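note to self: dont lose this again. the chain is below, predicted strucutre after it. 173 aa total, dont forget to put it in the shared folder this time
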Amino acid sequence: MQIVDILMQVVARFAAAIPNVVGAIIVALVGWIISRLVGKTLWKILEKTGANNLANSLNESDFVKRAKIRIVPSKLIADLVYYVLLLVFLMAATDVLGMPVVSQMVADLIAYIPNFVAAVLLFILGIVLSEGVKKLTLAACHSLGIPSAAIIANFAFYLVFLTLTISALAQAR
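---
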C-alpha cells in the first residue's frame, strides 16, 4: 500500500506542476515572438533613418579596419533590444514556474545591461578619440618636421586608447 500511496503523491505533484510548466512555455513563446518582432521592426526603422551612417567614421578608423570588424549600429541596437526583451520574458516565465532564484539572477543580469552599454560606448569613444589624437599628432609632427612622427602618433593613440579602455572596463564591473 505504501508504494501505491507514494506513486499517487508523485502523480499528484506532477499533475499540479503541469499548469505552471504550460504557462511558462506560453510566456516564453509569446516573449520570443514579441522580442523577435520588436527587434526586426526596430532594425528596419533604424536602417531607414540612416543610423548606420553614424558608424562610417568609426568603420574607417585604422583600428577597426585592422581588427576586421564592421560596426552596424542598427543591428547592434536591435539585437540589444531583442535580448533585453527576451530576458524580461524569461524572468516572467521563471516567475510562473515558481523559481525565484533564477528570476533574481535574470533580474540582476537585466540590471547590469546599462553598465555594459555605457562601457561599450566608452570603448567606442576611446577608439574615435584615439584615432583623432593620432591624426592630430601625426599632422603636428609632420608640420614641425619631426622624423619619428609615426612613432609619436602611435604612442599618443595607445596612450589615449588604453586610458579609455581601462575606464570602460571599470565601468563594466
